Amino acid sequence: MRVGACVIFYKGHCFQSFGLNDFKFLGSSKNVFEAVDHHGFSEICIIRPAKPPLTGLMSSHRSGDIDSYLGIPTILVGGVEKSLAHDPGILRSIERVAFNSLLFEPECAIQKVVDIFGKQAVVGMLPFVLKDGIYMAYNVSSDVLIELTSDFISKIYSICDEVVIHDICAHGKSGEFDLQFITKFEIPVHRTIACGGVSPSDLKRFSKLGFSAVYLDNISLHSDSVIDGYLR
Amino acid sequence: MINIVDVGIGNTKSIKNWLYYSKLDSELLTRPDEYSGGAIILPGVACSANLLGLLREKRFDKLISSAATNGTLIVGICAGFQALGNYTREGKGARGLGLLPVTTEKISSDINHSIVGWRSVEIDLSHIDPKFKSGFGRRYRLKGRAFFNHSFGVTPEKKMALPSSNWLSKTGSHLNYFIKENIIGFQFHPEKSAHFGRVLAEIFR
After folding, report:
1. CA distance B197 to B179
2. What was the ipTM of the complex prediction?
3. Residue A3 and residue A43: Cα distance in Å, rounded?
4. First-residue to last-residue Cα distance in chain B
5. Are the beta carbons of A116 and B47 separated by less than 8 Å?
6. In Å, how far are A76, A86, A183, A184, B110 from A178, measured between CA atoms?
7. Residues B38 and B2 sit within 8 Å (Cβ to Cβ)
8. Residue of A nearest to B112 (CA)
9. Helix B48-57 / helix B60-69 crossing angle, nearest 10 deg
10. Nearest CB to A162; choose among B9, B79, B113
11. Of A106, B31, B81, B127, which cross-links B179 as Cys (Cβ 3.0–4.6 Å)?
12. Which of the residues A84, A92, A122, A162 would you substitute to probe the B interface, choosing the one with the greatest number of B C-beta atoms within 10 Å?
């Protein structure tokens, strides 16, 4: 099982988040990426939010810090379609791309991306919440919650190589990833990356369950939670 | 100078960063007439059929073939490796550059998605042209963990006696890498294989 780090990136800075509502400044992207590389993670998932996580943020750093050297593969989430159209250069330092909004479009919409990157590089990003007992998927670009169905789940697994199942409410909280979601929709865990609330102490459990990967969020970037020694 | 072929796709910047970190000069080659000598790298993170179409459209195929004949170091990474072979079945299929006696095919449907992750790799340097070995000193074998991400795999066209280390352990019938003197293909991504990748960069020294 791969163990990746998940960071929220905005204009050269990285941020911690709790439930993707509350944000705290984490550090410069250069320092954060170097730490992630150094501490033995399999890969890094960089989430680019559409809006600044914090108000009053200085945007003096260029947004191209994503393309500095990282010895591990990079998955980019957020604004990939826009980058393809307006700033394709930024994608030349990315190994896999993850999509959220395109999952809600007809299947042919993602074919263009498959033609460019190859199917193995296309990952689905499915943030979910449990609201009034119903699991809802979050469509980031339209900012709406949509009730999840098994048909929708089947569709995204047919068009993506792997899918990041992101428990938004558990993001930044140790040991709280909602495994019932996995059971309810009979998620094919061998093609699933669990993200949100997964901590280093959960690794053995998720590995036994057969997940292809997990992404550790904020906590992975704190010195008392390093995973040195966990083989890539 | 190390030349990274840039036809508009592939993780060329990652490769450039990898070489830069290893204190090796490289440039992105966007047109064949810009080439003035040095090793050539074909990047990955692409559909190999698409990559081949663009190589031919931009006339890189002739440059690469000519350089290979002249003994220039040619390195193909992932889709770039697949493009060096005779044929790829990815996408709509495409004739390869014919520089390595291999074919690219879909990995068995028993494996439901791509091969993605880190695997142990052992590289036998004995078939490499000696002038590209100097960066490795006396070593004749390299071992390490490398990152793979591919849904199509490379197989040799004819039965060949290859060491077990050449074969992808997951399928047993696809290649991790292939070396033919000055032409090398890596199915994995050395530019994203951390320490082992940095060791492999010495091939360009």
Report:
1. 17
2. 0.89
3. 7
4. 10
5. yes
6. 24, 37, 10, 11, 29
7. yes
8. A191
9. 90
10. B113
11. B127
12. A92
**Contact criterion met (CB below 8 Å) for B48 and B7:** no
- Distance between CA atoms of residues B123 and A107, nearest Å: 40
pLDDT confidence band for B102 (50 / 70 / 90): very high
Based on C-alpha coordinates, what's the Rg of chain A? 16
Instruction: List the single residue in B12, B47, B114 with the smallest CB-CB distance to A161.
Output: B114
The alpha carbon dihedral of B48, B49, B50, B56 has a sign of: positive
The C-alpha atoms of residue B62 and residue B35 are separated, in whole angstroms, by: 12
Chain B residues near residue A72 by CB distance under 8 angstroms: 147, 192, 194
pLDDT band at B11 (very low <50, low <70, confident <90, very high): very high
Q: Measuring CA to CA, how many Å separate A58 from each of A9, A15, A51, A220?
A: 14, 14, 13, 26
CA B160 from centroid of its chain's CA atoms: 19
Q: Is the pLDDT of residue A227 over 60?
A: no
